[in-house]
């Protein structure tokens, strides 16, 4: 059986880093035998990379490909420590105990277990004390972030579930969450929907991935079966991120959407993949938050 | 009629299936002109899928003004109120029979402008 060795480099969360992930996706799916991920060149892995690589490994396994992370090649102590801390290592052949730290657990959700996911967001992601927010505000945030998981399970047709990972970066006081699925992708879903609504195929095919993402972002737009008004999830999340002066980024097929303090941009990128990554950055600054009816000052 | 949401659904009003349970219980009384009260005491977390199905769906055959008179929401915190407001606005504008050919034409025109 042919063994494909794929090197995992240093991966942050800029667009160029996401491009590295999508190239790895393409290489891995081209493999017909065993895939071994080599970590010798990996000096850093942000949570987007952890969630993506974990999900990719499960996708490959579901397709009958044997997958191995070569832990002997992971010589960077900080990387190994992080992957042990967040539970990723234990899930992929390197038995170790998860530990409290700046990492938020790597998580695999095969199906939409609402209480499990909400407990993860409430306790493991936001409830760790990095963000000094009231319980009320904490609940408001996790309710908005839930919309990502709902969209992933409802729309993506993912066969292997949804993968998450997060981290708190103390130096810049950012709280990050990445949610990944390897379903059809938002642009593909939008095109399929338009085609099902009797729009001619040649017209549908002209729609760029960025244009499809932009349509999906608009309040009230939904590809769900007709009958009940929907299409608020992304809009609610975007609104909250804007208020927080954080950032919401979505990579799906060949499209990239970013919503931040500057507004929204929708761009076509050069490394399309089948799936969706939602990457949120929140600022841990309690002065940015307050409900009108909260009696106490934030901190 | 009064429905204690915490008892019926739990402390989280998140998923559409739970919203449908609420809708199934309150639709007929509202359609007959009865006042219905939903008490959200001790419900802490909210998301739009729940309200799309619990409340937004009601606007299919109950006018918005009538619904606002008949449906009372108690002990709903600011987060919940904001989501409900958004859901009602969205549902009131919803039309199931959109012309998607026109919509796609519009997107393609904008796409052409953006690439100029």
Averaging pLDDT over every residue of chain B, what do you get? 93
Outline the biggest β-sheet of chain B.
3 strands, parallel
Tell me, briefly, the overall form of chain B: elongated
Q: How many H/I helical runs of chain A?
A: 10
How many angstroms separate the termini of chain B?
A: 59 Å
- Average residue-wise pLDDT of chain A: 89
Estimate the helix proportion of chain A, in percent: 25-40%
H/E order of the elements of chain A?
EHEHEHHEHHEEHHHHEEEE
Count of β-strands of chain B: 5
Low-confidence stretches of chain B: none
* Shape designation of chain A: globular
Show unreliable segments of chain A: 292-299
How many helices of chain B in DSSP terms? 6
Q: Compute the CA-based radius of gyration of chain B.
A: 17 Å
Task: Walk me through the structure.
The complex is a heterodimer of chains A (299) and B (116). Chain A is an alpha+beta fold. Chain A is built from ten helices and ten strands. In chain A, a hairpin with a 4-residue loop joins strand 5 (162-169) and strand 6 (174-181). In chain A, helix 1 (15-30) runs parallel beside helix 2 and helix 5 packs across helix 6 (135-155). Chain A is globular and about 55 Å long. Mean pLDDT of chain A is 89; it is low at 292-299. Chain B has helices at residues 5-8, 16-31, 48-54, 64-70, 78-93, 100-114, and strands spanning 2-4, 12-13, 36-39, 45-46, 71-74. Chain B is elongated and about 55 Å long. The interface between A and B is large, with 43 and 35 residues.
């Amino acid at each position: 059986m042919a063994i494909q060795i794929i090197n995992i480099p240093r991966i942050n969360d800029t667009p160029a880093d996401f491009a590295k992930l999508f190239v790895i996706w393409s290489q891995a799916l081209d493999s017909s035998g065993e895939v071994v991920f080599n970590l010798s060149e990996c000096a850093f892995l942000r949570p987007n990379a952890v969630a993506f690589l974990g999900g990719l490994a499960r996708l490959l396994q579901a397709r009958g490909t044997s997958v191995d992370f070569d832990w002997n090649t992971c010589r960077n102590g900080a990387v190994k420590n992080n992957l042990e801390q967040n539970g990723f290592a234990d899930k992929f052949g390197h038995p170790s105990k998860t530990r409290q730290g700046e990492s938020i657990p790597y998580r695999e959700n095969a199906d939409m277990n609402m209480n499990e996911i909400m407990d993860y967001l409430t306790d493991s992601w936001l409830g760790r004390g990095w963000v000094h927010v009231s319980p009320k505000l904490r609940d408001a945030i996790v309710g908005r972030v839930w919309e990502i998981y709902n969209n992933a399970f409802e729309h993506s047709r993912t066969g292997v579930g949804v993968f998450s990972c997060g981290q708190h970066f103390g130096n810049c006081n950012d709280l990050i969450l990445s949610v990944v699925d390897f379903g059809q992708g938002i642009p593909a879903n939008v095109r399929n929907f338009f085609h099902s609504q009797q729009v001619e195929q040649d017209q549908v095919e002209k729609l760029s991935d960025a244009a499809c993402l932009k349509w999906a972002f608009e309040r009230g737009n939904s590809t769900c079966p007709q009958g009940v008004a929907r299409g608020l999830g992304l809009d609610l999340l975007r609104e909250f991120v804007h208020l927080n002066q954080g950032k919401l980024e979505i990579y799906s097929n060949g499209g990239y959407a970013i919503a931040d303090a500057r507004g929204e941009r929708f761009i076509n990128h050069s490394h399309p993949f089948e799936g969706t990554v939602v990457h949120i950055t929140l600022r841990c600054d309690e002065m940015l938050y307050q409900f009108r009816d909260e009696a106490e000052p934030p901190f | 009629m009064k429905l204690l949401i915490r008892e019926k659904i739990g402390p989280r009003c998140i998923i559409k299936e739970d919203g449908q349970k609420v809708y199934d219980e309150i639709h007929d009384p509202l359609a007959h002109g009865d006042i219905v009260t939903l008490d959200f005491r001790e419900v802490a977390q909210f998301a739009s899928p729940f309200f799309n199905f619990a409340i937004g769906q009601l606007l299919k055959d109950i006018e918005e003004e009538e619904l606002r008179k008949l449906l009372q929401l108690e002990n709903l915190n600011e987060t919940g109120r904001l989501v409900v407001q958004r859901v009602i606005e969205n549902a009131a504008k919803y039309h199931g029979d959109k012309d998607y050919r026109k919509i796609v034409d519009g997107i393609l025109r904008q796409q052409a402008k953006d690439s100029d």
